[in-house]
Amino acid sequence: MRGITALTRGLLGLLGPDVAGARQSLLALLLNTSTSLLAGAFLGSVTGTLAEYPGLLLLVPAAIGLRGNVFGALGNRLSTSLHAGTFRFSTSRDSLLGQNVLAAMILTLGVSLALAVIAEVLAVAFGIQDRIGLLDMGTISIVGGLLGSVVVLAAAVGLAAGAVRYAWDLDSVTAPLVSTLGDVLTLPALVLATALVGWGVVSAGLGVVLLAVAAAVLVIGWRTASEPLRTIVHESLPVLIVAGAISSGAGVALEGRLDSFLRYPALLVLVPAFLSSAGALGGILAGRLSTKLLLGTVEATATPDREARRDIRGVYLLAVPVFLADGVGAHYMARLLGQASPGLSDMAVVALGAGLVAMAFVVVLAYATTVLAVRTGLDPDTYGIPVVSSSLDFVGAVVLIVAISALGLV
Fold first, then answer.
1. Mean pLDDT throughout 205-214?
2. Considering only CA atoms, which of 137, 151, 217, 136 is closest in space to residue 184?
3. Torsion 112-79-383-185 (CA) sign
4. In the prediction, which pLDDT does 376 show?
5. What are the residue boundaries of the structural domains of the chain, listed by start?
6. Cα–Cα distance for residue pair 99/232, rounded to 1 Å
7. Element spanning 95, H or E
8. How far is 379 from 157, CA to CA, in rounded Å?
9. For 332-345, b where at least 16 C-beta lie within 10 A, e where not — what string?
């Protein structure tokens, strides 16, 4: 225990002068790992549901990512406002917080509809047999999205209140904690939503109503007279849809290797924790760079300056204990559930090796996305997290599968 404590202190010392922010990030990331492993255990326990509703797995990574993309970006916008000294905690509809909350719920409905369409198109394209139809996919996506978003929204607002009162660094805690809740809540919410399908005409009618309402709300948000709300919706919707399509690619990769994962269910337990950790680390980096670019403490240059390199180094160092915790935790979670694991050392090597490879992609993408957004006059808080986390869903899934295959585990 003393050795672990000394290692942790040494790690925090390497992260630079902002030890408090590093400690907040590390604690949030480890909490994210713990709860994501619960999501992984849940994923392993609902293989029957995935088999009953072919094509549903295509929706899972995108639906999980949507929570982090929408509410992580919300947290980043509020964080930038806090650092700039312009944020006031008010739930009024016309306040900054009120406009962001409205935008988050509009985007949740609209993008959930888009994700259902994307999942259905992919299911057709990849020839998934006996797939569920668009109306049922839409019902599951929209209802599951709303159920999963209510608690995440409350947490995001609570974090904003805590940041005002206790001087928390939202850039350090929002991405991992929102990812945590998104992981834990989305899968159960989607499974609960499946109870609404399979009722013939009743389910079809419900699907038509839900799809129509989601489309109508999105149109209203797109055309609203409120400029801040309209700007958030206009800037967020395209990137969220593209992000959802990329995340659905992770679902395709997992669906294609599902039988292999079932040989060692511990690997399936690892998937949500691994993808969530990669996305959360990317979110932290994107959030920090976004705030510093907007405040002028980081220059929007082709290569990172000294301050940006310090943030990159810090996030890379945070990745080491986090990915190790993912692998070790997945092994013991599987053992606790009586499920097969390839072994503790193999799980640790897979998680850490794949994680460090994925982090190289995180660094390049997070920096390039935030700098490009600033140079083109777009809001990096709106674009950073969705682009990074969704890309990490797909790249992370592929890298993880490659690492597992390289060790001969599938």
1. 96
2. 151
3. negative
4. 83
5. 7-406
6. 9
7. none
8. 20
9. ebbeeeebebbeee
Neighbours of 39 (CB within 10 A): 24
User: Which helix or strand (DSSP H or E) is residue 270 part of?
Assistant: helix 265-295
DSSP 195: G
- Judging by beta carbons within 10 Å of its beta carbon (0-12, 13-18, 19+), is residue 259 exposed, middle or buried? exposed
pLDDT at 1 over 50: no
| Dihedral in degrees, nearest 10, Cα atoms 353, 356, 358, 362 | 170
**Helices and strands (H and E) in the chain: how many:** 14, 0
Give yes or no for a contact between 144 and 185, defined as CB atoms under 8 angstroms apart.
Answer: no
Distance in angstroms (rounded) separating the CA atoms of residues 334 and 325: 14
Task: Say if CB 123 and CB 55 are below 8 A apart.
Answer: yes
Cα 7 to Cα 10, 14, 263, 310, 314: the distances in Å are: 5, 11, 35, 20, 15
Give the model's pLDDT for residue 4.
Answer: 43
Cβ distance 178 to 156 under 8 Å?
A: yes
**Considering just the CA atoms, what is the radius of gyration of the chain in Å?**
20
> Quick check: 164 and 89 in contact, CB under 8 A?
yes
CA–CA separation, 354 vs 82, rounded Å?
35
CA angle 397, 148, 189 (to 5 degrees): 80
Residue entry with tokens 């290797």: 257
Query: Of 52, 43, 47, 48, whose CA–CA distance to 130 is shortest?
Result: 52
Q: Can you say whether residue 338 is alpha, beta or left, with left for phi > 0 and alpha for psi between -120 and 50 degrees? A: left
Q: Hey, is 128 helix, strand or coil?
A: coil
Higher pLDDT, 356 or 387: 356
Q: How confident is the model over 392-410, as pLDDT tens digits?
A: 788 888 899 889 888 887 6
Query: Structure pTM?
Result: 0.76
Cα separations in angstroms, 138 against 20, 132, 365: 43, 10, 31
Closest by CA to 13, choosing from 363, 359, 313, is: 313
pLDDT tens-digit readout, 264-320: 888 888 988 898 888 888 878 887 888 888 788 888 888 898 888 988 988 888 899
CA end-to-end span of the chain: 34
Sign of the C-alpha dihedral computed for residues 272, 275, 278 and 281 taken in this order: negative
